[in-house]
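step 4 of 6: structure.
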Amino acid sequence: MRMLAVFEKNERIRHIGHLDIQRSVQRGLRRSGLPVAYSQGFNPHILITFASALSTGACGKREIMDVTMAGEVSEDEFLTRMNRAMPPEMQLKEAKKIDDRHPSLMGSLRAAVYDLKIRDRSQAEILIRAIPSMMAKDRIVTMRKTKTKLAECDIKPLIYALRGEGCDIFATLALTERESCKPQMLTEALKAEAGMTDEVRMLVIREGLLGENESGELIPLERL
Amino acid sequence: MDIRDRFERALERVQKAPRYTGGEMNTAIKKWEEAPLHFGFCFPDTYEVGMSHLGMKILYGLINQESWSLCERFFMPWTDMIALMKEDDIPLLSMESRRPLNEFDVIGFTLQYEMSYSNILAMMDMGGVPLEGSERGEKDPMVVAGGPCAFNPEPLAPFIDAFMIGDGEDVMTELNRVILQRKQQGWGREKCLLELAKLEGVYVPSLYQVSYDDEGRVTRVTPKGEDIPERVRKRVVTNLNDTYYPEEIPVPYTEVVFDRIMLEIMRGCTRGCRFCQAGMLYRPVRERSMDTLIHLAEKLQESTGYEEISLSSLSSGDYSCLPELIRELMKRMKDKRVSISLPSLRIDSVLKESLEETQQVKKTSLTFAPEAGTQRMRDVINKGVTEEDLLEKVRDAFHGGWNSVKLYFMDGLPTETTDDLDGIADLARKVVSEYFAVPKDQRARGLRVTVSVSIFVPKPFTPFQWAGQDTLETIQKKTEYLKKVLDIKGVTFNWHEPYVSFLEACFARGDRRLGKVLRKAYEKGCILDGWNETFRYDLWMESFRECGLDPAFYANREREREETLPWDHIDSGISKDFLWRENEKARKGETTKDCRKGCNGCGLQKWRGVCGYANAGCV
Ligand code: SF4
């Protein structure tokens, strides 16, 4: 049996990196006393996967983990015991039993929904005003940082939705194992469009992760 | 923008932000309004060091456990964060509710090593607390301190209102109660200090007058009032089973130095090594019972989810039923996938059996501390370990599949000669041969022998408290010599820079006048002195010069038996006569037996009911 759980990484701990978040969830599972499955071998670890690593500095409202259980547990019990075992900064919102044959989260992931809170109101206004003209273009070229170099990249096909309101930019951006658009790439493109060179301070909130259903619609990954 | 927003902005720019964010498991204990007394626990070093410290976790839990007191943590920020805080006018904030240090009623520093003293000043300064007691007003917090360095409190006397001497568990609550009264009844600072001085084990330095002779030696320390005790005796908790121990401890998100459960199995040590301050200060030996330990281990495992438990004490191998304890812990922890590790393994403990058991869980590197290279020198320091002991343990370990051994030594010990330095190299060479004596197919590959040599620092309340430290020149020559003789295949030699040890020696046995030097050095920019990259020896020497004090007077000078030592008014329970006797025996190379074989009359035997090994009618 596997348990799919939706959890939050809140603003206070947004600088904690993915590896540390993983370790914290594992320790949480150990504290919960829930019957989790361990890998075989000399250095056994809890069988758990995360749908997507959330970058350091970003917080996540609905992050998803997939835990292999060694025994039967109800969804309610999983939720209650885990929430007692996790700090207030990392509470679970939902738990759902899934079949062992359920496809891997990472493979099903298509996109992520972001709320980018621009700290400076006037900067936000300028960036939001640049959305229509940028989206009217055939190509939106920005730089992608790889391990070794900076490469040009067209993010137009990777932007599924984009709008602004007040200080917030709401965006749905591609996120798959093959290609993805990071929020920073989007804001860089908007800055270029608006002719802005100043540094933009923003809080990146990943609101949720999306997968694709049979009819090709993007729906929350945990609903697949 | 308010302070917390500015702090958030700094976090976006700083390296290693996680050390400042807080919000760890088991730290959301209570709200500010829930308790009338607010205690700011300050660890004067970085988060990673502080969060590895057991004493802090004990007191954090203890203070928060009382309904009327609340404890939040403070750590020393790294230099990049300090710069950002200055730039944006951000005070030092607590990890929990992010409140400035000066909003707390009491702030408490733990004194683990002398090289953290400048951080104490830095933290108060950043937290908006006037540095010296005499500069603090009625709105300012009371500043207290405890820990091993509190046994010679004098260099910190101007900055700390009250020191807690000895075990902190009981006196902490008593002290907080007095400070709560200050708050609720509007006592002035003076009244509060007088009340604190009445507590057993509390030293209020401003209530004592120090006089010196022409050469700068202390002649007398006199209490300024009739109610003030002439000597302050340390606190001792006699039964560890009845003493508070936390069942929940904070679990950091990031990896810290010791990221595991630390189970204090006993306090104190019966061995009587003559260089070891902890061994004297934490006398007598007190053990926690197996039942208590197993209960604590299970509770802590459930509340932390940690994967490792380490048994901690000065000499874990001496715990009376160690093999049983380890076996029982292993049995209970196996299904939970928790490994058990023994950090300060003594090489002469009956541990072969347990060694084999630890190994089935985790094979870490083995650590031995012969401390000196020759039997003569080991007799001088009363380190009751022979070469045969060590080699036998090493042999067992190599046969058992270990390939990595760490050996710890000191140089600059009293009476040391070149022979003793050669002895270090000889021992290392013999360890290497033990490895190669194991048939190739039966030993683990890749031998690693690490020899670490630290520089001896004479400490108060040890038999060597009168000794002069080797001069910098001598130490440097010895290090060069060791580099030559330790150039052995398979052996890595780690040495220490002598400057830090020299300064440590000054402050370890310093008097009240050193407060001026400390303040000057801090004002010149000395902070984080325990870190190579930030240590500024030149600024320290400049500060000594400008204060008209000679560091050699403190570090290198041999004291007379009759001399009043700056810490003589602190009573550790160990008599000066005993220490002097031990000093004389050391010079003659005579050893003193382990207290478990009979009382040696250290002075504690006169303190009724404190030491379980001292029977009535002994010396
Ligand atoms: S009183 Fe005796 S047995 Fe106890 S610590 Fe002192 S010397 Fe050892």
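step 5 of 6: annotate
 - The two ends of chain A are 17 Å apart (CA to CA).
 - Chain A touches chain B through 26 residues (CB under 8 Å).
step 6 of 6: archive
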